[in-house]
Amino acid sequence: MKFKKYIWPIVGFATIGFSAWLLFHELRGLSLDDLWDSLKAIRIRDWFCSGLATLLAYAALAGYDRIALQHLGRKVNWLFITLTSFTTYALSHNVGASVFSGAVVRYRAYTSKGLSVAEVGVLVGLCSFTFLIGTIMLIGLVLLYEPDITERFTGILPVEASTTTGVLLLLIVGLYILGSLLRLKPLKIGSFVLPYPAPTLVAQQLVIGPIELIGAAGIIYFALPEAGNPGYMVILGIFLVSFSAALISHAPGGLGVLELVFVTGLPDMNPADVIAALLVFRLFYLIIPFIMALFVILFFERSQLAQAQAQRREGLR
Q1: Residue 194: in which H helix or E strand, if any?
Q2: Does pTM surpass 0.85?
Q3: Inter-residue contact 269 to 152 (CB < 8 Å)
């Protein structure tokens, strides 16, 4: 049991080390001066657009929780939902093992609003599934548009795909929609059971899930220069591969994994420009939200403590 407790952190940090070693060989000729020049070359307009893309991504993430709460038939204040979702993802994106770290934050927040442990479990599962189905749909669409995109990662990732793969992925999404329309038996993933959401909620999932990923990829796209830029759809495809690899690796913040996949996937661009764009992504999508989330947690725990003390005083009267 003690070994199982540490296995994912070990896997995560081992992945960081291996990715850093591969990345070192990719960036041997890169200097800090080159990187600084690339950062300075990012225009104010592009910084602004990357900021707006960040807001879009985190607004969509709050939609994950709203969909799950609708499925449970629970009403929670929209501001509380937004802050809970923001804090959950700001922490889990940085810590790694996002399903588990996110579950802890959601449990602490939503049980204070009267949700049971089982309900929080369904909420976490449905939020994860919204991300999964959105990712599957977007990868399918990208493969239809750019079927040769996986050739960019030959040598570092054991993945191959084609237009046929894209069609099959979209068929999976179609089967999920059909299951909801026909009200089939609940989905079973191991010991976890998830009833099909109503068709109206499935429609929301298929909008909200992709929007979050589209916004997150947009942060990087706007920070990249025009020279050698293959276009947004290719950047989105590379982001989907890199972000998925980062989540699977359990590396905190996808450190090293994102950089390696992007540098490899953009061979026609200056590596310094790619790393600079990823630094902007880490600043907007990871670092700033993480700092803000710590203050949100501090405020929440302080308010919970004050409420408990007030209830204790009432009980003594």
Answers
A1: strand 192-194
A2: no
A3: no
